[in-house]
Amino acid sequence: xxxxxxxxxxxxxxxxxxxxxxxxxxxxxxxxxxxxxxxxxxxxxxxxxxxxxxxxxxxxxxxxxxxxxxxxxxxxxxxxxx
Length: 82
Hints:
Helix content is about 65%, strand content about 0%. The protein has about 80 residues and is mostly helical. The longest helix is centred in the middle third of the chain and has 37 residues.
């Protein structure tokens, strides 16, 4: 098995795909305990990375929306992604 990629270098899509694979493996219950713990740790780090990337994207979109109409523009509201 090859060494896993450094999480910081992964795109949102790559991190999410790997996280989905980890969740599927953990849910299967087929991995030994130590492997499950390692996967869980990596999954937690991938989740945090995805959340950071999403927040950065949200802020970029908000900046675009506010910048397009100016800070005091009527009808322009900050973007919310929930």
